[in-house]
Design brief:
75% of the residues lie in helices and 0% in strands. By secondary structure, the protein is an all-alpha fold. It is globular.
């Protein structure tokens, strides 16, 4: 259900540029997106799992705040990141 260590390392390398860059906003958004996608699939089959649904909403709002930060500082980077991760967001 969760993102594996190998998947995390691939996402960190792809969006952070190196293995050490784990705290940048684009890496955090990529990791949150992977977790959100996994949890969404879980909730499709477990419709009454309300505790996980709350966690999903928390992750979505955190990702939205990070996307808003990137959009304020680097508009082209925001567009590239949202296109690469296939994220739709109204700002």
């Amino acid at each position: 259900m969760s993102v594996t260590k190998d998947q995390k390392s691939v996402l960190i390398k792809e969006f952070g540029g190196s293995d050490k860059n784990t705290g940048s906003a684009s890496v955090q958004i990529a990791l949150l997106t992977a977790r959100i996608n996994d949890l969404t699939e879980h909730l499709k089959s477990h419709k009454k799992d309300f505790h996980s649904r709350r966690g999903l909403l928390v992750m979505v709002s955190k990702r939205a705040k990070l996307l808003k930060y990137i959009n304020a500082n680097d508009v082209e980077g925001y567009r590239a990141l949202s296109a690469k991760l296939n994220i739709r967001q109204k700002l």
